[in-house]
Amino acid sequence: MSKAHVFPLRVYYEDTDAGGIVYYANYLKYAERARSEMLREVGIESSRLMDEDNIALTVRKCAVDYHKPARLDDALEVHTRITQVGGASLQGAQHIKCDGKDIVVVHIKLACMAMTGKPARLPEGLRATLDQLVEK
Amino acid sequence: MSKAHVFPLRVYYEDTDAGGIVYYANYLKYAERARSEMLREVGIESSRLMDEDNIALTVRKCAVDYHKPARLDDALEVHTRITQVGGASLQGAQHIKCDGKDIVVVHIKLACMAMTGKPARLPEGLRATLDQLVEK
Amino acid sequence: MSKAHVFPLRVYYEDTDAGGIVYYANYLKYAERARSEMLREVGIESSRLMDEDNIALTVRKCAVDYHKPARLDDALEVHTRITQVGGASLQGAQHIKCDGKDIVVVHIKLACMAMTGKPARLPEGLRATLDQLVEK
Amino acid sequence: MSKAHVFPLRVYYEDTDAGGIVYYANYLKYAERARSEMLREVGIESSRLMDEDNIALTVRKCAVDYHKPARLDDALEVHTRITQVGGASLQGAQHIKCDGKDIVVVHIKLACMAMTGKPARLPEGLRATLDQLVEK
């Protein structure tokens, strides 16, 4: 299995809620920051996909398991693997960890969308780059 | 099947992203506002659960299907049904609609947590109230 | 002095932080929801300004005084007045209230911006509508 | 003048809005992340202030000037200086920069609050540490 991309982050006040823990929707922000950085490392930036290719990778499905809450000032890591790339979509698994243990696990399916809102095929170069990221 | 609880809301700038659509994590905020209002209508408030019962209902799992994006100024509705209540958890389905059609569907499992972070059983009165909300 | 526009809202988990109070940036979200609804009532929608006029009203300055924190489940009101309209900008005051008392006060200056990012003059029809909202 | 604390960050989808720029409230999140890291570097963590000293530093006032918008994928820096420390409050200036130029400037006043919601004096050790951060 390929090595996962690892993205470190810190929990700030903005992420937490009155229950004293990270608000459940905010783990999806963490997951997306990690996906963005994984793609940036192989030369893919969302802003350029929009401006030059007129496309965006949008989320079609996600399934989230919350095992243990993160709290203010925790240092977390998001471990991201792309598991499958198709003609117009890709799938991945993201493990958010604290002290080396999974606290939240996200399974996600992204689809390529034209800026008009219509589904689109992944441009060939983008698909080739993503294919290289898929775990083997 | 019981009638769903319906919660109307509007899409503001804060909800959208540079792709021109509602950011994927923000539908989970909509879902939680709707759950809060459904519970408030039967006399349950999160702040009182915390202060008086020392518990919170926290999300253990959610699965989200994104069918169609919402955009700035859209008027949406969240249709919420509780589908199952157990000794320490409950499950529900939430359909976020625009112009009467499902755009995002959320299946969710909540668990009762003591403010210490440990799992807890649903207090009897709370469970009885939730049972009445379950679709029949 | 003209009557302020009043926008009611509820504090949800998403708005609060681990300090048990509404996170300081989120009052600016409340303020913007209120401005959006005030404008919608006189026929102005942000999405149409963008799509039809290629402009947006963007914030140039804001000054915020935090007198008292709001908490989970609080019912708040945002009282909004436009105080001045110029050729390319407008100013307003927004009082966020709980139990009838100001808890947060926002003074704000908005400027008209073309979607290219350049400053723009307020379209005549928009300016006339805004003028009617100014307190006299 | 003392050297400012510099905190680098990246703009993600979560930060932007349908206008294609960073949503105005989100710069306050950036400002707070920067303050948290500046304090963490001198041994002060918000979570420990809450748990051990039963206090939090809360925002009493802020004034924000928005000169130029940031966009998706921009690399920003927050330059933070504490300008004044009193018995129960402190003041600071935060310059958010893109390509070396100020895009948003935040002036802020924080006050020490007991977790009961009442104002409190800064604990002596905390105040001494903050004093050392003040520009000379």
Task: Summarize this structure briefly.
Four copies of one chain form a homotetramer. Chain A is of the alpha+beta class and 136 residues long. Chain A has three helices and five strands.
According to CATH, the homologous superfamily of chain A is Hotdog Thioesterase
Distance between the termini of chain A: 5 Å
Tally of domains of chain A: 1
How many helices of chain A? The count is 3
Oligomeric grouping of the chains = homotetramer
Q: Rg of chain A, please?
A: 15 Å
| Coarse structural class of chain A | alpha+beta
Low-confidence stretches of chain A: none
Strand order of the largest sheet of chain A: 1-3-4-5-2
Task: Profile the largest sheet of chain A.
Answer: 5 strands, antiparallel
CATH architecture of chain A: Roll
CATH topology of chain A: Thiol Ester Dehydrase, Chain A
Query: Helical percent range of chain A?
Result: 25-40%
- Number of DSSP-assigned strands of chain A: 5
* Largest interface pair: A-B, 26 and 26 residues
Write down the secondary-structure element order of chain A.
EHHEEEEH
Overall body shape of chain A: globular
What is the arithmetic mean of pLDDT of chain A? 95
Strand content of chain A: 35-45%
CATH class (first level) name of chain A = Alpha Beta
Tags for this model:
homotetramer, 136 residues, Thiol Ester Dehydrase, Chain A, five-stranded antiparallel β-sheet, 3 helices, 39% strand, globular
Give a structural overview.
4 copies of one chain form a homotetramer. Chain A has 3 helices and 5 strands, in the order βααββββα. With 136 residues, chain A is an alpha+beta fold. Chain A has one domain (5-133): Hotdog Thioesterase (Thiol Ester Dehydrase, Chain A, Roll). Chain A has a 5-stranded antiparallel β-sheet with strand order 1-3-4-5-2. In chain A, strand 4 and strand 5 (101-114) form a beta hairpin. The longest helix of chain A is centred in the first third of the chain and has 16 residues, at 26-41. The first copy, chain A, is globular, with a radius of gyration of 15 Å.
